Amino acid sequence: MSPSSVSRIIDRLEIQLKQRLLIRTTRRLRVTECGQEIYHYALNVISATDDLFSQAENFSNIPRGILRITAPNTLGKILLTPFLSDFLRNYRDINVKLFLTDNIVNIAHDQFDLALRITETPPENMVARLLMPIDYVLVCSINYHQKLPQDPCSLIEHNIFFPDEQKMYSGWSFRNGRGSIRVSLTPRLIINNSDAMLDTILQGMGIALIPTFIASIYLSKGQLQKVLPEWKIDNLYPRNAYIVTLPQRLLPLKTKVFIEGFMQWLKQKEIH
């Protein structure tokens, strides 16, 4: 809907209610107290309508319809797409629209049924189901051209790759049964894309700290190997992966079976 159409609808609504909903100036738009009340009431009406349709759908006891999902690029590529092959085979009346983006999507505005999010704190106005903590592991290619480091301090002699994250520069803290040590490293290569980072590691160009859910696939295939496996590295990014949905008293059956199936699939695959 165009902005002009929205403006006309709001104008008509203000005339009917005999109340200002928006205060317009040349530089900004501000919602009035009445406008905020109307907005929250409308959200409740929409939620109740969603519940009504969900209830009607669930009476059929057959999950069906279009399931709209959004997720970060890497999480979607590594986890969602392998799961979807089984899901679509098991639920032939469900069609899936998967939208991968590293931007935060407003699932209410863009009409998504659920979202996968990696965050420290899930949004308070939504229902968040914990999938897994995002842990990290230090890895390199099985064909890495140098002798592997024997202790954390030896890492300074190797090509270390960083994501474009400021926290990486603060130093890495290592722990084992004998004590702990903190090492400051200078990156040989900085990459802001997980796929590109993985490609360079697989080519044997260097060592990197990457999420375990990414590394586990390539470790199991024998393409990557752990570096300093006897050392535990403190997590620089204490975040979790969640499935996020809008607050509804009754989830649509298509959404419910997806969430339950995906969480069970993660447990079976021991992905963490």
TrEMBL record:
<keyword id="KW-0804">Transcription</keyword>
<dbReference type="Pfam" id="PF00126">
    <property type="entry name" value="HTH_1"/>
</dbReference>
<keyword id="KW-0238">DNA-binding</keyword>
<keyword id="KW-0805">Transcription regulation</keyword>
<comment type="similarity">
    <text>Belongs to the LysR transcriptional regulatory family.</text>
</comment>
<dbReference type="InterPro" id="IPR036390">
    <property type="entry name" value="WH_DNA-bd_sf"/>
</dbReference>
<dbReference type="InterPro" id="IPR036388">
    <property type="entry name" value="WH-like_DNA-bd_sf"/>
</dbReference>
<dbReference type="Pfam" id="PF03466">
    <property type="entry name" value="LysR_substrate"/>
</dbReference>
<dbReference type="InterPro" id="IPR000847">
    <property type="entry name" value="LysR_HTH_N"/>
</dbReference>
<dbReference type="GO" id="GO:0003700">
    <property type="term" value="F:DNA-binding transcription factor activity"/>
</dbReference>
<dbReference type="GO" id="GO:0043565">
    <property type="term" value="F:sequence-specific DNA binding"/>
</dbReference>
<dbReference type="InterPro" id="IPR058163">
    <property type="entry name" value="LysR-type_TF_proteobact-type"/>
</dbReference>
<feature type="domain" description="HTH lysR-type">
    <location>
        <begin position="1"/>
        <end position="32"/>
    </location>
</feature>
<dbReference type="GO" id="GO:0006351">
    <property type="term" value="P:DNA-templated transcription"/>
</dbReference>
<dbReference type="InterPro" id="IPR005119">
    <property type="entry name" value="LysR_subst-bd"/>
</dbReference>
<protein>
    <submittedName>
        <fullName>Transcriptional regulator PtxR</fullName>
    </submittedName>
</protein>
